[in-house]
Design goal:
Alpha-Beta Plaits, alpha+beta, rod-shaped, 3-stranded antiparallel sheet
Length: 287
């Protein structure tokens, strides 16, 4: 083959063999326009992004804060409602327990009063004679017969008579007389009262044959509870807070003034009201 002898043939071969064709001016212009457009677009996009990002951030923050606040408020309302329900339940339980306790106290008071009445029934036929000295080989029955002679009454039928054991070095423990019936005991008490009023003097030991004018006392037996009430009433009388104190049928009776009504202390509430006088409180007992 003959070697090339023209420029076009040489360039053509070179061009076809190793060098890409030169771009046309129009293509270059188009590429420049695309570049400028992309550059301008990217710039505007960056400006827009920088402009709206804080606003979006602010709005999102506000929305999140509102949602958090709403959630917190909902939780608070739920917790408060639960606490109110618990508090209401606790109040109901507390009131129920208070009612039950009050009912139990009331029942206990009733039971105590029943026991006190039963105990009082047990001593309703008994008589107590105190301040009589003990004598070796004494006969309490003879002493009681002598008492009946003094107060001018027939000796009533007895179930028994004995001297209590003394818890101290003194030997003048009470003599207990048990009658067949409460009416017999009351007959003796009335006779003692009549004797004292008629003779304007108290019973004394000399009447029983002792070499002493010391008084001795005849009174109805009391339960421990009523005996404590009697001691309280006598103390209040000594303090001028009661006008008159006496016992009848094993119960303590009080009168606050000379013209006042007689109050029988026959249950625990009345005892509590009587006890208020000791501290100077106003008692409902005499209203």
């Amino acid at each position: 083959m003959a070697p090339p002898n023209t420029r076009s043939q040489i360039y053509g071969k070179v061009t076809n063999a190793s060098t890409p064709p030169l771009p046309s001016p129009r293509l270059q212009a188009a590429e420049n326009i695309d570049y400028l457009i992309d550059k301008h677009f990217n710039k505007k996009l960056e400006e827009l992004t920088n402009k709206i990002t804080p606003r979006i951030t602010t709005q999102l923050t506000s929305i999140i804060a509102e949602e958090i606040a709403k959630a917190v408020n909902d939780i608070k309302e739920f917790v408060n409602a639960e606490l109110l329900a618990i508090k209401s339940d606790m109040i109901s339980i507390k009131q129920s327990q208070a009612d039950e306790l009050h009912a139990l106290k009331h029942e206990l008071s009733i039971l105590k009063d029943k026991v006190a009445r039963q105990e009082n029934t047990g001593v309703a036929r008994n008589l107590s004679i105190s301040n009589i000295p003990f004598i070796e080989h004494e006969d309490p029955k003879q002493l009681f017969n002598k008492l009946c002679e003094i107060i001018n009454i027939d000796v009533p039928p007895l179930e028994g008579i004995y001297r209590q054991r003394s818890n101290s070095a003194r030997s003048d423990a009470k003599i207990i007389v048990k009658f067949k019936s409460a009416s017999h005991r009351n007959d003796v008490l009335r006779a003692v009262s009549l004797f004292c009023r008629s003779n304007e003097k108290k019973l004394h030991l000399e009447l029983l044959g002792f070499d002493s004018t010391a008084p001795f006392y005849v009174h109805e037996c009391l339960t421990l509870q009523n005996y404590n009430i009697l001691k309280l009433a006598l103390r209040l009388k000594k303090e001028k807070k009661l006008f008159h104190v006496f016992t009848r049928h094993g119960l303590v009776h009080v009168r606050r003034s000379q013209q006042g009504r007689i109050i029988q202390i026959d249950n625990r509430p009345k005892e509590i009201e009587l006890n208020k006088l000791k501290s100077g409180e106003e008692s409902q007992l005499f209203r």
